[in-house]
Amino acid sequence: MDLSIAAASPPRRSLHRFANPGQFLRLAARLQPWLTWPGLLLTAVGLAWGLFYAPADWQQGDAVRIMYVHVPAAWLASAGYVGLAAASFAALVWRHPLADLAAAEISPVGAGVTALCLITGSLWGRPMWGAYWVWDARLTSMLLLFFLYLGHVALVRAFDDPVRGARSAAILALVGAIDLPIIKYSVTWWNTLHQPASITLTGAPTMSMSMLWPLFIAALGFTLGFGAIVLARTRSAVMERRLRGLMLAAAERSQPSASRG
Amino acid sequence: MTHLPFIAGSYAATLLAIAAFGLGARQRLRRATIRLAALDRRAAARR
Predict the structure, then answer these.
(1) Which among A57, A92, A134, A258 counts the fewest CB atoms within 10 Å?
(2) Quick one: chain A helix, strand, coil %, rounded to 5?
(3) Could you give the 3-state DSSP secondary structure of residue A207?
(4) How far is C-alpha A56 from the chain's CA centre?
(5) What is the complex's ipTM, to 2 decimals?
(6) What are phi and psi of A11, to 5 degrees?
């Protein structure tokens, strides 16, 4: 047994064991169906329950059914950004080779989910507030989150050198994380048209359990679905990087013979 | 004021987003898997 190699290898429990693309692809392929199918099923159940079986609100009427798509999208917009910031941190501090790829795949999906949150919020705002948009602290901080996601997407692709692009985007993602507590506490710090949180860690929920259950199921389904989409995109990115490497190697092998010819 | 168009619009936007991102990710993964397998097969045949 070669003890020098054994000593030099990273600890087994380190995140770097997933830096091996082959190992990541094997693990991700096993994990994929466990995210995809429960995600689809729970989303379908949560949305159908919210749309057809949950009770209407005494004040808002049937418009409250928009909550079952708006709240999970809003939760994921923030949670997705936490994931983006964590991947960016891992890329900057530990230079984890898959963290850059994961961050680049999270941001377009996060931007999509944030756009969905803004669209559904706007469609909920029109019958409730009489306006599609108001420059309220919660809405404005959410719009800023959308621009942060778009900025990340743009920065990743803005440089010829992908490493520089990934590093600049990672810095933006970390700086932009300051928007997350602003979103969370905007309804507390400022007098907003947007309602305060109905579900908190410290107090009992202020909504009926008949509304809470479909909301919880839809949120869980959305979260698993988000994970499934990001995982599939990251697997594709790892494969595409390997493809580029193989094609580059093939091109380099054929170059000397071509120049002699 | 009926709320139905707003509710329908919200759910339609959600289903559209799920379909676009889900099918897009599936297609991209499928394409990458097929291309990589073909390239690996070619490399193995050369060896």
Answers:
(1) A258
(2) 80, 0, 20
(3) coil
(4) 30
(5) 0.91
(6) -60, 145
